[in-house]
Each structure stands twice: as C-alpha cells, then as structure tokens.
Amino acid sequence: MLEQLIQQLINGLSLGSIYALIALGYTMVYGIIKLINFAHGDIYMIGAYVGFACITYFGLGFFPSLVIAMVACGLLGYLIEKIAYKPLRNATRIAALITAIGVSLFLEYGTMFIVKANVRTYPPVLADLSFKPTSNIVINIKQIYIFAVTIVLMIILQYIVHRTRIGKAMRAVSADMDAAQLMGINVDHTISFTFAIGSALAGAAGILVGVYYNSIDPLMGILPGLKAFIAAVLGGIGVIPGAMIGGVAIGVVETMVSGYGNSLYKDAVAYAILILILIIKPSGLLGKNTREKV
Amino acid sequence: MPLLAVKNLTKSFGGLTAVSNVSMTLQKGELVGLIGPNGAGKTTVFNLLTGVYVPDSGTIELDTGGSMTVINGLKPYMISKLGIARTFQNIRLFKDLSVLDNIRIAMHQNVEYGIFSSFFRLSSFYKSESTMLEKTNMLLDIFKLSDKKDELAKNLPYGEQRRLEIARALATRPSLLLLDEPAAGMNPNETSELTELIDWIRKEFDLTILLIEHDMSLVMRICERIYVLDYGTVIAEGKPEEIKNNKRVIEAYLGEEVLDA
Amino acid sequence: MNRVLNLKNIKYFIGLAAFYGIVQILIFTNILSDYYQVTMTTICINIILAVSLNLITGFTGQFSLGHAGFMSLGAYTCALITLHISEQYSFFIGVFAGALVAALVGFLIGIPTLRLRGDYLAIATLGLSEIIRIIILNFDFTGGASGLSGIPQYTNWTWLFIFTAATVIIIKNFINSSHGRACISIREDEIAAESMGINVTKYKVMAFVIGAFFAGIAGALYSSYFYFIKPDLFGFLKSIDILVIVVLGGMGSISGSILASVLLAIVSTYLQAFPELRMVIYSLLLLIMMIFRPKGLMGTKEFRLDDFFRKKPIKVK
To answer: In B14-157, where do the E strands start and end?
Structure first.
C-alpha cells in the first residue's frame, strides 16, 4: 500500500518536473509582458524533435543533444518574440493572445507538414536500467535523469534571476516596465532574454520526455502545454517558485488520479483544478492580488 | 433630512489606510467642495460613495425619494439607479463610440423595453428608442456637442471630452453629482467656462454637487462649503473663507501657492 | 422609423426572399451540385457560429475560447432527440432543445467565470469546453469516442436559410438596441459602464447565453446534416476555427463575420485535400492579420446596402 503510494509519488514527481520546466517559461513570460504564450507548449514539442534529430541523424549522446535542443529552442523563442509578439506589445490583450494562438498553430501544423504527422520513436540513448529500493518500488534511471536535469536547471535559473544583472533587469521589468526603462534598462533585450530562457527550459523538457516516454508527434505539446499553464496559474502566474510548485503538484495529482481513480478523467482533473483556482484565488498559491486603479 | 449622510467611513488597502473615519453631510441643492493634497484619499471617497469599493466600516446613506437608504455594499449600477452619478479623474469615456452613444448608453437604466422586444422590434422598442434619442439630443444641445454627435469620443479635444463626461453623467438623472477634478488640465479661460457650466447645471437639473478640485479659483468661487481631506481624514470643514485661513489646511498644502485665490 | 413594417425592412425582406428563391432553384435543377451544397451548409453554420461568438467576444469584449462546447451540446441534444423520435417534428424539438441546453450551460458557465478578465476568462472557457467534451466522451448514451451515427438528415437549404437569417437579424437587432449598447459599453470600459447604471454581470451573462443559444442551433443543424458526430469534432481546434473567422472579419462587425465565413469556407474547401497546409495557411493568415490589420477586414463597421445605392454627392468648393 505504502509502496504503491511512494511509486505513484515518484512517477508523479517525474511528470511534475516536466510540467514545472514548461511552466517556468509560461510564468516568466506572463510576468514580464502579461502574455499567455500559447505557443510555449509547441516549443517543448520542437525541443523533442530537435533532440530526436540529434540522436537519430547525428548520433549524438544525451547531453550534447540536450544542450543543442535547449539552444535551438532558445533561439526559436527569441525569434518568435521578435517577429510575432513585439509588434503587438501595445495592442489589446485579446489581440496578443490571438497572435500567440496563431504562432502555436503555425508551429504545430508547420511541423506536421514537414515531418508528417506520424509518431516517431526515440532511439534508446540512455541505458534502460532500473533501481528497486524495495521489491515493489521501481525507479527508472531515466526518471533520475529527469530529476537531476530539472534540479540543475532550476538552480541555474534561480542563480540567473537573483544573482546576475540580467536577472535583476527581468525582475525590474516584471514589476514595472516603464520605470525599468526610465532606469536605463534595455527592455527589449530583457524581454528577448526572458523568452529565450523560458524556451530553452521547454526544450529541455521536450527532449527529456522524448527520452523517457519514447514517442513524439507534432501535436504532443498541446496537452502538456495547457497543463503546464494551469500549473503556472496554480502556483501563481508570474511567480517563479510558483511554477515549480504548481508543476509538481499537477504532475502528482494527475498521476494519483490515473493510478487510483479513472485514467479517463485525468485530463479533466487539470481543467477542474484550473476552474477552481480561477474562482477561488485567481492569483494562485503564491501570487499577489493586483488592483486596477479607478 | 440631508441628501447624503456619510458616517465614519473607513477603507484600507493591505496595510495602507486610505480613508479613515470620514464623515460628511450634504443638504439638497448644495455645492460642496472636497479638497486636499494629492493622495489624501479624495477619489477613494468617491469610489466608496459610488460602490466601486466597499467600505471596511462606516455607513453611507442617501435620500431616495423621502427615506434614507443605506447604500454601502450595493453594486455601482444600483447606486447609479438610486441617484448618484460621477465623472472620473482620468476621463473614462467610451472612447471608440460616438458622442451620441456615450450619452445614450447612460440613458439605458430608463429603458422601457425588454430583450425580447429588441430581438423582434416590437413597438415598445421604437417608442422607447425615440424617447431616448430625443433626450440625448437635448443634452447634446445643452452641452453644445450637437455638431459633434457622430464623432468618436476619443477624437474630441480634451475640454470637450470633460464636458461630454459631465453630460453623460447627467443622462442618468442623478440627484447627486460627483465631479472628480473636472478642471484638470484646463487653462484659466476653460476653467472659467466650466465654473459657469457647473453653476448652471446645478440650477437647471436641480442637483446637489460634490466636487473634487485642485484649482482653488474654481473651488473658492462656487463652493458653498468645503471639506478638507489629508492622509485619509477630514482635517477641516467650513465655508471657503474659513478654510482659506485655517492653519491646519495651510500646513497640509505647505509649499503650494494654492490658497491665494 | 417607428414600425417594423417600414420601407427599408420591406426592401430587405424582398431581397432575402429573392436570394433564397434563386438558390433553391439552383439546387432543384442541380446546377449547384452536392459538392457546393456542402460548402453552402458549412458557410451557413459558420455564419451562425461566428455571429454568435462575435456577440460575446467582439461586441461585449468577453474572450470566449469555448464556443465549440456550446455547439457540441446543441449537436448532441438534437441528434439524440431525432435518433429516438422518428417523426418529422423531432427536428424542431431537437433544434430548440439543443439551443436551450446550450443556453442553460452558457448561463451556468457564465455566472462563476465572468468576473475573470481577458486572458484568464479565455483559459477558463477553454477549460470548461474541454470538460464538456471529456464528459460527453465518457458517457455511453452519447456513443463515447465513436460518437453518434445515422443521424436523420433534416437540414436542408430552407432550414439553413431560415436559421441563418434569423440569427443574423436577431443578433443585429439586439446590438442596435439599448441592451446591445449596454453590452458594447462593457467592452469599452466596464467600470464606467457600471457607474452609468448598467448591470455588468447581467449583461455579460446575457451575451453568453444568447451566444450559446445560437451556437446550439448551429450544432443541431450540423448534426442533422452530416449525420455523424463525435466529441473530437468539437474540441479546442473548432473553437479556434470560429475565432479565426470572427477575428478575420472584424470583432464587432456582423457583416465582417459573414464575409469571413464565406471566404474561409471557400479556402477550406479548396484546401480540403491538404489538411496540414490548410492549417498552416490559416495560422499565417491569423498572424498576418494580427500584426498588420488587427481590426480585421471590416473593423467594427458594417456593410450598409445604402452605401451601394447612394449617389455620390457633388463636391462644392
């Protein structure tokens, strides 16, 4: 009994780590320009495909592929911001949201158009080892890789955000864009950098998922993207630790519902959590309430 | 019976007390000023009176045709229907709509046909629309905006936008009108015209007016009584002459050459 | 103008009747083949969907990403009724029951979510629409993942025309009334609107309910034409399809929604053979629109027949 619970927790944590990595990108972008980047889940998908290409066609190992996927996605995020979002920075929120939807569709169907819709399988790049701390608990080495990569990336992110100048700029622009600009911060660069980092993290999540779950397809980013967004809202949109907590929470809850309840409803649970949060405390667990001045 | 009775109104945001134990009374037909340095809480008082904010404690009572109704806790649209109208510090017109529509929308609370009638254009629709249009045109005439009635509100010059906001507020047929810095950004000429307009509408529409202003020439000229707010509390109340010479008031405004009106 | 029976309306009525008659003849004589009939059906259903979504999003400013959910409720309700009652009149019951179910759900959804702003509301409506889809997916009587098939085909040009025209006329009438203006003022400035005596919550819910009602009608017409429905057809992608039409046509323009429905149905039909390419083009269209002309084709303006008949005034210097 207890062992089953621990197993579910472990599985939930690895799923949650993936959601957390994706959620970070959502939360950072929303914090800085108040945009829900609908296309973010698709950047995760591109990361998975880049990783696939590296491993399959260039025969690279896991870590080089991880780095390349992250760089490629970072670059993609940067380009998307420059081309599609920057022109709409002063438009209405609805306009920006619709643009993000457009980018998302473009990435999904563009990829489908180029690589065809069928599912691809990741070649085994990591050994398929498992640990069995007890007879009923299995930890796969891939899960350990997921934990390790996630933790390292989060530590690096925390360092960047709190110990570097660009990180300080990010926090300043999130708090008040105009004031930051008046203080001499290059807002455009800061926003670009935020997109790049968030996208790189999503790319890492993509390749990790490819390695762990083995199959990838052009529409794989829709559902995890949505759930990661819900995770970001749950934790408090715009608050970085919130994305981490929210991601893990959603991952664990989803695994529990699937394991103990009805797996058909596991997706609905995430939506239900979203509705509850929006009704009870829209600013999320760690978020603060902002008021419109009348 | 006063028109408006405010007792011990208090409102805090987080740790900051914006308004503390404010009490005011307005008699029917009065023109009262609400002044104080920036950040004193004047607009917050307006927001409390109109239901945009709910007070933490205290009561607001309004004379609604013979009896005093408690209005704190009611939603803004209800308070509007009970007879309080306002303008906003940072003009809140319906920018992409025409001048005509801006006023016509404020007439909505007096609409005399239901949704079904609007779907199928029953006769009550035509009657009511024609009445509303007539009244709107009358207001446009009074405020000299008739020739601009099809113009988008955002394209009006600043002074006319402020006038339109007042016209729109009057379309709701209030008994109490709250004006939030109506003269902001106006030159002395425009301010003078505005002062006359305010005086005139008070008589013409049988209004009671509560006015927030920084322009002391306006305040001293038309206000019969003044409340002075500083850091959320009322520090003085009385006739313009008394306020002008009140030490506490002068101190609150220290550094501004405002009271030489 | 004080009566419904005025000259302008009579002209419109004659025009509409003529249009109906001409198309009906083209169908009878088979000049308009089945292929084109499918396109016409799609156009009409899309017009109803787009105009009803426009009411919610374009005119009242409430960003709804869950319109497909309302459509699915109408589709399933009507299908279940016509499948179980074999008389002709089951179609009418089906359509109106479908619309009412959708409207009721619109009401239930509206109340808790309408205090949310902009992006949050969008995501909430998306989530709710998905919950509806998942619930339908998991019930047996709705056919689960394989859906319902063999739905009797009652939708024909006459019904399409009547319901489409009715939708456009009713919503247009609503918009050009004080109640409609109340909705528009909410889009412009909610706080000012409420301060001017408009019950903002009531009108937001009203827009949702009316929009949902007509989306339900569209869904019912859909299932009664294509005789087969399944939950997948009414997912997020369908909601986006409708949103694209509204944005392309201009949020706040009914004529724009009609125009865009026609254009996109034509594009869609030509690209039928290349579904991915169609979506790529759709998304590019969306992006180009938002970057260069976010107001859409018509902005908030409408086509007025007078524009075509007025003589140009002679300019006097």
So the answer is: 16-26, 31-35, 57-64, 67-70, 84-86
Place of tokens 């889940």: A41
Contacts of B225 (CB under 8 A, 6+ apart): B30, B32, B33, B237, B238, B239
| Pair B163, B143: CB distance under 8 Å | yes
- Split at pLDDT 50, 70, 90, the class of C317 is very low
Residues B8 and B128 in one domain: no
The sign of the CA dihedral C61, C62, C66, C72 is negative
Query: Looking at chain B, which subunits does it touch, using at least 3 CB pairs closer than 8 Å as the criterion?
Result: A, C
* B43 domain residue, yes or no: yes
Best CATH choice for the domain C39-233 from the list 3.30.310.50, 1.10.10.60, 1.10.3470.10, 1.10.565.10: 1.10.3470.10
C22-57 residue pLDDT tens: 888 888 887 777 888 888 999 999 999 999 999 999
Calculate the alpha carbon distances from C103 to A76, C52, C215 in Å.
42, 12, 9
Domain-located, residue B102: yes
- Residue ranges per domain, chain C? 39-233
Chain A neighbors (3+ CB pairs < 8 Å): B, C
Same-domain status, B70 and B43: yes
The answer to whether A294 contacts B13, with C-beta atoms less than 8 Å apart, is no
Only one residue has tokens 């920018």, namely B95
User: Residue type for C178, please?
Assistant: S
What CA–CA distance (Å, rounded) separates C310 from C314?
12
Interface of C with A (CB under 8 A): 57, 61, 63, 112-113, 116, 118-120, 122-124, 126-128, 130-131, 134-135, 137-138, 191, 236, 240, 243, 247, 251, 276-277, 279-280, 282-284, 286-287, 290-291, 294
Residues B79 and B137 in one domain: no
Per-residue pLDDT reduced to its tens digit, A76-96:
999 999 999 999 888 877 788
Largest CA-CA distance found in chain B, in angstroms, rounded: 65
In a 10 Å sphere around its CB, with 0-12 CB exposed, 13-18 middle and 19+ buried, how is residue A142 labelled? Answer: buried
What gap in Å lies between CA C118 and CA A93, rounded to an integer?
7
Alpha-carbon distances, residue C255 vs C21, C112, C219, C249, C261 (angstroms): 22, 32, 21, 8, 10
Residue B127, helix vs strand vs coil: helix
pTM for this model (two decimals): 0.89
The answer to whether C87 touches C203, Cβ cutoff 8 Å, is no
The domain tally of chain B equals 2
Residue B134 shares a structural domain with residue B190:
no
**How far is the C-alpha of B178 from the C-alpha of B62, rounded, in Å?**
14
Q: In this structure, what CATH number is given to the domain that contains residue B48?
A: 3.40.50.300
- Angle, CA A270 vertex, CA A268 and CA A274 arms, to 5°: 115
Check B47 against A294: CB less than 8 A apart: yes
* DSSP tag of A108: H
Angle at B47 between CA B44 and CA B53, to 5 degrees: 95
Interface of A with B in 232-291 (CB under 8 A): 291
Please spell the DSSP secondary structure of B154-200, one letter per residue: GGS-HHHHHHHHHHHHHTT--SEEEEESTTTT--HHHHHHHHHHHHH
The beta-carbon neighbor of B80 closest among C178, C184, C197 is C197
The residue segments making up the domain with residue B27 are: 4-83+174-252
